[in-house]
Write a structure and sequence with these properties.
By secondary structure, the chain is an alpha/beta fold. It is built from eleven helices and four strands; from the N terminus they run αβαααααααβαβαβα. The protein has a four-stranded parallel sheet with strand order 1-2-4-3. Helix 4 packs across helix 5, helix 5 crosses helix 11 and helix 6 runs antiparallel to helix 7. The longest helix is centred in the middle third of the chain and has 19 residues. The chain is globular, with a radius of gyration of 19 Å.
Length: 217
């Protein structure tokens, strides 16, 4: 399989960009998918086994132009932030993330980011795969576009420059090589994370990436 990937890259006319989704985070870090992450956040707020189902039910009766998941996230975030400010018992942040909340970051996004950062531990039996990816990337991958929030690429492709959010694409001097575009935000900047309705509305209205710009594997 590894040889097949190398041959595929060698036969391309241009150096490719990779588009990476949550499958990578689940494989190497065992992080939850979108719904799984929302369930984790609900559990921090309410231990009732039907708590998440109640949000699904509420969302189904409301308009959700950007999909039901962003609507669910918006409903959870509203309740979570209210409880977080009123109840210190549910706070789990370190000083760095607490400071981010003090500066205006959503507690929901800060707690979610802190949780994912703490859980981002590479499976020991997959270290060889990550080494192989790093070796291939150095000579054969121009860049990576990802919707993932975690710090996998910052950790294991340290030679690549990371851009967070679409504003970075608009206002930064891009080189088109050895770059990672985190279009849905990053754990290092929780407020940049795209997860609720407001985030998706802004994301769609400032959508900068068009298919013709990148060759995606």
């Amino acid at each position: 399989m590894n040889k097949t990937i190398e041959q595929l890259i060698e036969n391309l006319d241009t150096i490719p960009f990779l588009f990476v989704g949550s499958g990578l985070s689940r494989r190497y870090y065992n992080l939850p998918d979108w719904i799984g992450l929302l369930k984790v956040m609900v559990d921090k707020l309410n231990k009732d086994s039907f708590a998440f189902r109640s949000y699904e039910d509420r969302a189904s009766f409301e308009s959700n132009p950007y999909g039901i998941n962003p609507k669910i996230a918006s409903l959870i975030e509203e309740d979570f932030n209210k409880e977080w400010f009123q109840n210190p018992a549910i706070r789990n942040l370190d000083e760095i993330y607490l400071e981010k909340v003090e500066k205006g970051c959503s507690p929901f996004k800060a707690e979610m980011s802190y949780y994912l950062k703490q859980k981002s531990v590479l499976h020991s039996n997959l270290k060889d795969e990550v080494t192989l990816l790093n070796n291939i990337a150095k000579k054969s991958i121009a860049g990576i576009i990802t919707t993932n929030y975690d710090l996998f690429f910052e950790t294991y492709l340290s030679e690549y420059k990371v851009y967070i959010g679409q504003q970075a694409l608009l206002f930064s001097q891009l080189q088109g090589i050895a770059e990672v575009y985190k279009i849905h935000g990053s754990l290092n900047d929780p407020q940049s994370i795209v997860i609720n309705e407001k985030d998706y509305k802004e994301f769609v209205s400032t959508h900068l990436i068009t298919p013709r710009k990148f060759q995606v594997l």
